């Protein structure tokens, strides 16, 4: 009897999809058992990477967010998958995947992992609200323009305020502002990029004391703190919780992961057929931008069953399984999945995901990412819980960045 231990985030869609894949693999490989260890996102990072669970063989595999890969690779925790590919190939690798999901996984010539769940950030909105004739007329009368998905942050604020109706338990927008090392970093990066600014200077040093960074933080804290625009629970919500509020019908539009738009098309969803996506708004004439952060399955360097692990990775990366996980709300990573006519017919937003993903940007990479994310968490926490000037908050963050010598490649 062989047992594979896989660590993953305790998110229902991930758990359901990987449980199905585990049972199918077990059925095809008698004598094999797959144990899924589902934990919170902080515990996943701690147990798999910080406490060397992958390096020392406590886990054979882990589902890791791409933010962590550089640190895990630098610590020697991840098996290089290139030699395995040369021995037993994965069908259509890498041409069957978009380059935006392959290149971030290659570090110093090593393939760190295989993409498993994608979903770039985009504007997600309710078509039933935007297409309502009465709301269109009221919006045109109030703002002298048509009610369409906003293309600038100014229009975004205006539109979100228009749709907020606490009596109907509906808010214009929602943000995942809980400081968990991910949500606030993603929001802050998007606010900077969508204003034509960068997170780092030409040397890879995070550089936050710029006029555009100040504009980004001022805008974000004003929106999130205003219950006439934004769901008041936002400071306590992570991305999945904020997406769930949208899917329950409590939010009109949001900047969030494509996966939530895809989930709206599942059978029984109250928003089935009522959700569409569009580019993220911008300011200062900046071009549209998106963020690609995704989840990948990595083999632990310390696994004592690497042959079996590789068989499992090849299994979940097959066209059939990549498409199959979409039934659970997860987003496959193969181009064949995104282009599948039946899937596009059932969940129309899949017609747009390829264009969004190909143009999505990656975060800077390096072992310092966790430290940098913690600093951004503190920036957003102070912005949302105090009246301290944004400039002072960013100056303090910059001093901490420089004192720790944080740099990215």
Written account of the structure:
The chain has 409 residues and is an alpha/beta fold. It has helices at 12-28, 41-50, 69-74, 82-87, 99-102, 127-130, 133-143, 153-163, 183-193, 211-224, 239-247, 258-263, 306-316, 319-324, 335-338, 341-346, 350-358, 369-385, 390-404; strands at 2-9, 32-39, 61-65, 106-107, 110-111, 114-117, 121-126, 253-257, 275-278, 290-291, 295-299, 360-361. The strands form 4 sheets. It has a 5-stranded mixed β-sheet. A 3-stranded antiparallel β-sheet has the order 8-7-9. α18 (369-385) packs antiparallel against α19 (390-404).
SSE arrangement:
Elements lengths: L1 E8 L2 H17 L3 E8 L1 H10 L10 E5 L3 H6 L7 H6 L11 H4 L3 E2 L2 E2 L2 E4 L3 E6 H4 L2 H11 L9 H11 L19 H11 L17 H14 L14 H9 L5 E5 H6 L11 E4 L11 E2 L3 E5 L6 H11 L2 H6 L10 H4 L2 H6 L3 H9 L1 E2 L7 H17 L4 H15 L5
Parallel strand pairs: 1-2, 1-3, 10-12
Antiparallel strand pairs: 3-11, 4-5, 6-11, 7-8, 7-9
Helix pairs in contact: 18-19
Characterize the quaternary organization of these chains: single chain
- Estimated structural class: alpha/beta
CATH superfamily of the largest domain: Periplasmic binding protein-like II
Strand content: 5-15%
Highest-level CATH class of the largest domain: Alpha Beta
Summed up, what is this model?
By secondary structure, the protein is α/β, with parallel strands linked by helices.
Key phrases:
409 residues; alpha/beta; D-Maltodextrin-Binding Protein, domain 2; 2 domains; 3-stranded antiparallel sheet; 19 helices
